[in-house]
Amino acid sequence: MVSRRELxxxxxxxxxxxxxxxxxxALAAADYSLEIAPYSFEVSxxxxxxxxxxxxxVPGPLLRLKEGREVTIDVTNRTGDAEMVHWHGLFTxxxxxxxxxxxxxxxxxxxxxRYTFTPxxxxxxxYHTHTFAGHDLRKAEYTGQHGFLMVDARMxxxxxxxxxxxxxxxxxxxxxGNEDGSMDPVYEVSTINGRTLGFGEPLRVKEGQRVLMxxxxxxxxxxxxxxxxxxxxxxxxxxxxxxxxxKTVGMVRLAPAERVSVMVEMDNPGVxxxxxxxxxxxxxxxxxxxxxxGRAGKPQWQQPEALVWDYLQFGxxxxxxxxxxxxxxxxxxxxxxxxxxxxxxxxxxxxxxxPDTATVSLTRGQRYRLLFKNSSNDNHPVHLxxxxxxxxRFSDRPATRGIFKDTVLVEARKEVDVEFVADNxxxxxxxxxQQNHMDQGFMMLFRYV
Length: 449
Fold this sequence. Notes:
This protein is mainly beta. The protein contains four helices and 32 strands.
């Protein structure tokens, strides 16, 4: 059996040997350039963290693209390891998607690669590394390699006066044992846009403004709950896709890789805290100050009493007796296998771990229903590359319509059904977006031409 680590090595070596131009100056100028390199940044006063980042900043630069207009992005790798950039949420060809399991070439150590694709669909997407970490919590998604990618036609949720992009991330992870002897990461520091609460510039607003905030959970493993003290938030989009029923909520939940876009009426002047609802997350630093013009003083926080989140509130109820397109069902059961004290679990889909998971053949143009059954005691944020799926059912809840995402959290011992159309041919990766689960086999491929 070939492990994922060995696959990474082999594909990385093949990328170095391929005819990828090493001198990008010989090509026409790219629309954007990204440099992957070591980076040291001040996360809180006089405390510096060392990581790998894009263009010497965390998060990486905002890439603002036009839907349907071809873009070229040059990526230069200044590290000693082969790298990969995944364009999360975009309908790219497989060789541009940024997953070596789909056949995308690596960006070789010390080398460069040009990505060329036509961005679609419109909405809030993001880009990030897509490599193996294992027990090394200084690699892959544990690093600062993440950034927003906004595809316009610009989201217009009724007009707004300001727009903020806010990336959540966790740092300085270490492996901690669970009661069953398995290992999961725990973190020392949590940030919004690379800074802890109270450090760096606040979000400056004015009374009467309508502000659109795009939140991204770029954590390698952890779910986060976010509230804005003194205000409610109207959810207008999930994973960059407008919801049919925008709702006003007191907090939002983001699993790894999820994005939530909220509209906020700035109608309560003061200096407020926006941050992690759970006390340990706030204590680790996950928060940012929201400051009204002409106001000063200590930022105020109001602790919510309970964690409240429900995907279904943003959808439309399925109509009883509604005639639906023919759909093919594919059951996917998620399980873990304990492999020994001090080791990570081995994660399985339908009883097998990648690369031994079955590759499922699809028919182009066919609609499929993926039946997720989580038989484990862990939550799993599962992601389908190069496609968007529609949420249809959560365990015994009423069926829903109209919520389109690329990542959904399947809670422990629960079931979720989603549907998608096979309309972007090529190898298509499906995996849990927790770095440790993916590294331990929670992946599979769909394939069609």
